[in-house]
Design brief:
- The protein is mostly helical and about 200 residues long.
- The protein is about 70% helix and about 0% strand.
- It is built from ten helices and no strands.
- It has helices at about 10-15, 20-25, 30-60, 75-90, 95, 105-130, 135-140, 150-155, 160-185, 190.
Length: about 200
């Protein structure tokens, strides 16, 4: 499987309406969270690098190391900052995550989009769980674990009947997810830290 360009899913997702976002998740179901986690990891590292660069620039650090009293623990400080930034990004708290970073507006939308991607994926996955007898088969279908002819044969139906079953399951997941997204839409701004 070929890796997608790093920003394609994020950019497509950001520009899409709710229905299109759900479809993006279903179309990329097997690797969606892997993409979100990988993008988040890269974003956290970028933010930490920006913060460190700006801190050093503010005190006139030329990059030359001098011996100090060894009272501080730079490894511990780096670990604390990593945890702080990672947790803030995951929570959508862009004010905390971006304190001392550059490209504030760009990183802000990335943080908020990643948070929305995680939440909407979880909602889609829960809606798949409501399919009762179809849920495991539908998950396997989304993960491309079999071809339709094979599963249709094992189920004793035609390929067209199998396609229709999966189409109906997909539409149910989309409709149910959209219902819950509409229910929470009026309250979204309260959920954003810094809004």
């Amino acid at each position: 499987m070929r890796a997608r360009k790093k920003t394609t899913i994020l950019d497509d997702y950001k520009m899409a309406n709710d229905e299109k976002r759900v479809r993006i998740i279903l179309d990329n179901y097997p690797g969606f969270m892997t993409f979100v986690n990988a993008y988040e990891f890269g974003l956290v590292d970028t933010i930490k690098a920006e913060r460190l660069y700006n801190r050093r620039a503010a005190i006139g650090d030329t990059g030359v190391r001098v011996q100090t009293s060894n009272i501080g623990n730079p490894t511990s400080s780096e670990g604390d900052e990593d945890k702080l930034v990672r947790e803030a990004v995951r929570a959508g708290d862009y004010i905390t995550a971006l304190r001392g970073a550059d490209r504030y507006e760009k990183h802000k939308w990335e943080i908020l989009t990643l948070k929305d991607m995680r939440e909407t994926y979880a909602l889609v996955d829960k809606q798949i769980g409501t399919l009762e007898d179809e849920k495991e088969l539908f998950r396997r279908y989304l993960r491309h674990e079999f071809n339709l002819a094979t599963i249709a044969g094992s189920e004793g139906v035609t390929v067209e009947a199998m396609k229709k079953r999966f189409k109906n399951a997909r539409n149910d997941v989309i409709d149910n997810t959209l219902f819950w997204l509409e229910m929470k839409r009026p309250y979204l701004y309260l959920d954003q830290k810094g809004a």
